[in-house]
Amino acid sequence: MQTRNTSEEFQVREPKFVKLYYEAVGKLHGLNGTQVKIMTFMLRHMNYKNEVFYRERDKKSFCEEDKIKVSAFNNNVTTMTKSGLIKRQGNNDFTFNPKYLTKACWSEVQSIKLEQNFTVEGVENKVIIDEKELPY
């Protein structure tokens, strides 16, 4: 299935299970529902180097659509930074922790596995992305 994004480019829509994965990553990092929405907004602006750039206008538009004050958006981003999920590089410039989130070609992703191993040393989290077998 294809959809148009705001830049009029065609993209393959992410599979439904990806939203469940985003929610699981959010819970793992102690994010609330608003923060998961912000994470999803940021993911839409991520490139293949896990870099997130968005314009102030994009942020304001998101806040208006989701009825979030810009100051609340900024406070939630600070909380997300403290969780270790994202790292601030500059103003409206972040990188996601590649251990949990990375840009993918959704037409090739078969499944995403999130494993948690509990040991005396602590909790180890591991993400495995299974890609579809290509005919070549």
If you had to describe this structure to a student in words, what would you say it looks like?
The chain is 35% helix and 29% strand. The protein has 136 residues and is α+β, with helices and mostly antiparallel strands. The strands form three sheets. It has a three-stranded antiparallel beta sheet with strand order 3-5-4. A two-stranded antiparallel ribbon has the order 1-2. It has a two-stranded antiparallel ribbon with strand order 6-7. Helix 2 (33-44) packs across helix 4 (70-82). The longest helix is centred in the N-terminal third of the chain and has 13 residues, at 16-28.
In brief:
Helix content is 35%, strand content 29%. It has helices at 16-28, 33-44, 56-65, 70-82, and strands spanning 2-4, 10-12, 51-53, 86-90, 93-96, 109-119, 122-131.
Keywords:
35% helix; disordered N terminus; alpha+beta; 136 residues; 4 helices
- The first-to-last residue Cα distance is 23 Å
Structural class: alpha+beta
Kindly provide the radius of gyration, computed on alpha-carbon positions and rounded to a whole number of angstroms. 16 Å
Share of β-strand residues: 25-35%
Summarize the helix and strand pattern as letters: EEHHEHHEEEE
The biggest beta sheet, please? 3 strands, antiparallel
Give the spatial strand order of the biggest sheet. Answer: 3-5-4
Mean pLDDT: 80
Q: What is the count of DSSP helices, taking H or I runs of 4+ residues?
A: 4
Shape: globular
Number of strands: 7
The parts where pLDDT drops under 50 for at least 5 residues are 1-10
Helix content: 25-40%
